[in-house]
Amino acid sequence: MQTDQRIVIVDTTFRDGQQSPLLFDTEKYRFSLEEKKQLLAGLIELGVTHFEFFSPVVGEAEAEDVRELIAYAKELTPKPLHFLGHCRTNLLDVEKALEVGCNGLNLYLGVSPLAQRHNAQKSLDEAVALAEGVLREVRAAYPQMYLRFSAEDAFRTPLADLFQLYDVVYPYVNTLGLPDTVGIAEPEDVAQVVSALRERYPRAALEGHFHNDRGLALANVLAAVRAGVRYIDASIWGLAERSGIPSVTGVLFNLSKRYPEIKEEYNLSQCYPLNVLMASILGTLVPYTEPVSLTNRTHTAGVHQKAVLNEKKVYEAHNLHDFGVDKNQLLLGPLSGWNLIYYYLKEVEAFEITKEQAKRIAQEFKSRTGEIGRRKKPEELLREIALAHGLSRHPIPEEVPTARLENLD
């Protein structure tokens, strides 16, 4: 098998993403076919080429959606795409995935001690025999098909057991998966296991799937790629079981720092629009933990706001413009200083104001921020105070706001 040296995002929004508790929190429960098409189009526009889907055995509705999405994707682009069926290690799952149009398979089987006792209910030897038999049959029937095999819960599986399983499937697969199914690994663990697998299975590519139970998923991705993993599972917003997995846009943003070829292989300007699309579907804001977000360009502290007004780079170290975030926000609130108040009243509200007046108004504004809430916004309170101080507005021609400078000096 040939090992692909490119870094490839395997999007699993339509599989692990649909298992996210956030779909229940937002009372969405399940994406509609039309919503899935919108998300798929956004991912393709971004440059994603690998998509993981549920095995159709999940249900007839999901099977029909997968069939429709694969057909729709082929209408959107002539670029070769990989439609990967996420299958248990059995031939029924494989057959159903191929029936709906999947052209690749992501097979998995748990062999950790816990899985042997409580899930798969097979001994290690039985699991190894099953995997070898299924993979041999699938590869014989489909010599050119892309096959990945993963030992579920790999980081709670003794390395010797992992070797025993992967030794028998290695001849049949393109890629060996390394799933941190319960988010237990640390970056050092990832680097060690990846190095061991690369040394033992040099002809296979490696794929990382890292859950965020400890908040380390993205750090583990970076460690995995540095150690030689080339396929990374991600989803829009990092939606997945429990606390999720790394987000597509967060992975691309971080990998582009070290691997500039990412900028050539992906249309990074579509990152933020993709996140906003998901927000519109779920009816909530882009998560504040998402790197590619307007929140990551929002400033509330007075010291920060003053600096950003004069030079954004003081508190904005990363170029998010290339990722589709084309503006920032300075929010009026209890922590705002007179610099922002002066700027806002002069440049946005068009009041005639001096810096000394701004300092006096800022003191009163801060003393009255307890009035701010759902019924009165900060801008309303500040406008009220400005008028009470006798400030007057001057008319601004329509063309002026579009040419406004962000530096007051």
From TrEMBL:
Keyword annotations of the record: Acyltransferase, Manganese, Transferase
EC number, as in UniProt: 2.3.3.14
CDD domains: DRE_TIM_metallolyase (cd03174)
Pfam families: HCS_D2 (PF22617), HMGL-like (PF00682)
Alphabetized Gene3D superfamilies for the sequence: 1.10.238.260, Aldolase class I
Enzyme kind, highest EC tier: transferase
Domain of life: Bacteria
Alphabetical list of SUPFAM superfamilies matching this protein: Aldolase
GO molecular function: homocitrate synthase activity
One BP term from GO: lysine biosynthetic process via aminoadipic acid
Protein name: Homocitrate synthase
